[in-house]
Amino acid sequence: MPQIEANGIALEYEDYGDPAAPPLLLVMGLGAQLTLWPIELVEALAARGFRVIRYDNRDIGLSHKMEGARAPGMIRHTLMKRLGFNPRVPYTLADMAADAVGLLDSLGIARAHVVGASMGGMIAQHAAFSHPDRVLSLTSIMSTTGHPGLPPAQKQAIAVLTRRPASMEEAVLVEHGVLIGRTIGSPGYPPDEARLRSNTTANVRRSIYPAGMPRQLAAIIADGSRRGRLARVSAPTLVIHGDGDPLVPVDGGRDTAAHIPGARLKIIPGMGHDLPLALVDEMADAIADHARAAAAAGAAG
């Protein structure tokens, strides 16, 4: 797997499909490695005629780590934000969007279809309103505008995601990851236990870097509501959300679609905060059809 210099840091990425095909960039979420994009979905998108690129965000996986940078505690940071203060954070979602654009630069890609999941959806939104000339289409999956009035995550979902493992032993980390998968996963499409455990083990062995997650979380909190900025999105936009999402409730998807001009909303019954294998073809069709329609509209315009 190659690394590339982008926006002044090293990003680990993978490249699938025909290099001459329309590029489609996958941006993953909080504390999640590029491997959280199921390879079956990646291959399904490549089979539908796209050059598919997935990468590790900064501070996760095999990409650059912001060693030594300190983030404010989540509770203190959230309270200060509500009081109108903006604590200093190591980096912002805008910086992470610049990473994505920098990756495109380094790969010689002028414009791409950008697909983001969860925090990756927030990063993709930033790319769309801050770098509109680089985004052919936007697909925001299980993400949100960040508006403080939206329903919060279910307590058990946020608790398991932010809980520290009892130790850094592999067996403990795997159990912790499996518990997260069970808790935030799709109620209508429960994961195969053996596959969940196998994938979690592979991810633990690929990279473990707990220090990065608080910094990524701080970037999310610092960003606040994107409602006003989303009005600047000009790229054709598809919003996908599950109605069973315990971490980012479906109202986050509805709010995103409501504040992006012309956005289409696709709500998937039974989907939670993951990308179930049973939904790979439906998701790949939705993303591919949206990207093709956006390209056709751009060519006609």
Provide an overview of this structure.
This protein is an alpha/beta fold. It has one domain: Rossmann fold. Helices cover 43% and strands 15% of the residues. It has an eight-stranded mixed β-sheet with strand order 1-2-4-3-5-6-7-8, with helices on both faces.
Shape: globular
| Strand line-up of the largest beta sheet | 1-2-4-3-5-6-7-8
Q: Tell me, rounded to a whole number, the average pLDDT.
A: 94
Helix fraction bin: 40-55%
Per DSSP E runs of 2 or more residues, the count of β-strands stands at 8
End-to-end separation in angstroms reads: 38 Å
CATH class value: Alpha Beta
Briefly note the structural class of the backbone. Answer: alpha/beta
Q: Largest sheet, if any?
A: 8 strands, mixed
CATH architecture heading = 3-Layer(aba) Sandwich
- Please give the radius of gyration in angstroms: 18 Å
Write a brief caption for the model.
The chain is of the alpha/beta class. 43% of the residues lie in helices and 15% in strands.
